Amino acid sequence: MTQTSRPFLPFVKPEIDEETIQGVVDVLRSGWITTGPQNQQFEAELSAYFGGRPVRAFNSGTCTMEIALRIAGVGAGDEVITTPMTWVSTANVILEVGATPVFVDIDPATRNMDLNLLEKAITPRTKAVMPVYLAGLPVDMDRLYEIARAHKLRVIEDAAQAFGSTWKGKRIGSFGDLVSISFHANKNVTSIEGGALVMNNEDEAELARKYRLQGITRTGFDGMDCDVLGGKYNLTDVAARVGLGQLRQVERFTEKRRELARAYFDAFDGGAAVRLGVGLPPRNFTDSNWHMFQIALPLDTLQLTRAQFMEQLKERGIGSGVHYPALHLFSLYRARGFGEGMFPHAERYGASTVTLPLFTLMTADDVARVVAAVDEICEQYGPNR
Ligand SMILES: Cc1ncc(COP(=O)(O)O)c(C=O)c1O
Q: I need a labelling partner for 247 at 20 to 30 A (CA). Which of 31, 79, 222, 305 fits?
């Protein structure tokens, strides 16, 4: 039985309220639409959210990470350890600053960097570590910082997906070293495109401000100057106003996502998918912001490929995504000597993972509909059909 009569359920959809839309209209009418008062307000509210730490906003999570690497002094000759289970930009920015990405495999239980392997991958050239909190689940933050301290490494947290996540009750970003957030349209909190960097002190924040706009130190009637090589990474005030409207709802968003994730586990419980070996994500309801709900398909036993599975979902009016194929197998990284068999857990997970719909506008009925479809497809294409 197909469910095509119902409206298509995408795998993600932002919730932008009327107050935010009106706020954007006001900004557009204000006469100042690029970086200005809305950015200042956004940075101030972000800083308050992160316990008063300095924050600067940027026009993507990608450039935020790149600037964090520059602030940490990472460059040619340095190694930066990260995970292959991430969006491509995590490793690309390491290349961008002239450093060498070093991958370590994931822990299959969390799908995040295996911290035991991190320790083994440290060499005299290692300058920094870039953990990624896949789907918003942090790594063991105590252990991460213990290792970083012991080896005098900078930590650039790729917390792109972890806005609203916590560790032992403390917000991710409210402690630690350099913490990079993304406000891309699919993130829990969005500014359409955008990012923010949480830093340790005002010197770093001043450097971030300069890197954000051409290294400019001075503009005015008395002339202009720049003293570092900066880029064009500033956020528009229209985007900042969207971010402000979203930021003020982050707790509600996180709570709703946790509720939906719980509904997923309940609906999957005892069903065909789980019986046939579909892997569910780590059940964490204390730290994770539930940025995504990702399952892993038992492709050895199912009689269809992942693409066919996603096509079957689509035929039932349900969108899905892949986050992510293992990054070291992308051509850019293969050309740098990486290949199959190097990070088996990431490869296995990357080949079998499917992201199911999860966004705050969904209902428990939507979750039931997705799980019914997954169960039905698994039953239909299971080993005993
Ligand atoms: C893990 C991770 N790192 C980095 C990024 C880059 O963020 P952006 O798309 O804002 O550049 C993203 C989001 O796309 C991400 O999910």
A: 31
Angle at 234 between CA 228 and CA 239, to 5 degrees: 170
Read off the tokens for 319. 């969108």
Task: Give pTM, 2 decimals.
Answer: 0.97
Q: What are the tens digits of pLDDT across the range 326-346?
A: 999 999 999 999 999 999 999
**What is the distance between the alpha carbons of residues 101 and 36, in angstroms, rounded to a whole number?**
35
- Mean pLDDT for the chain overall: 96
3 state DSSP class of 6: coil
Q: CB–CB of 144/131 below 8 Å?
A: yes
Site to substitute for ligand 1 among 89, 112, 235, most atoms within 8 A of C-beta: 89
CA 179 from centre of chain = 12
Top-tier CATH class for 250-381: alpha beta
**Atom from ligand 1 closest to the CA of residue 194:** 10
Query: Residues of the chain whose pLDDT is less than 50?
Result: 1, 3
Report the SS3 class of residue 180. Answer: strand
What's the CA gap between 308 and 2, in Å, rounded? 15
Q: Which helix (H) or strand (E) holds 265?
A: helix 250-268
How far is ligand 1, taken at its centre, from the CA of residue 195, in Å?
9
Q: Look-up: residue for tokens 């990012």?
A: 195
The structural architecture, per CATH, of the domain 18-247 is 3-Layer(aba) Sandwich (3.40)
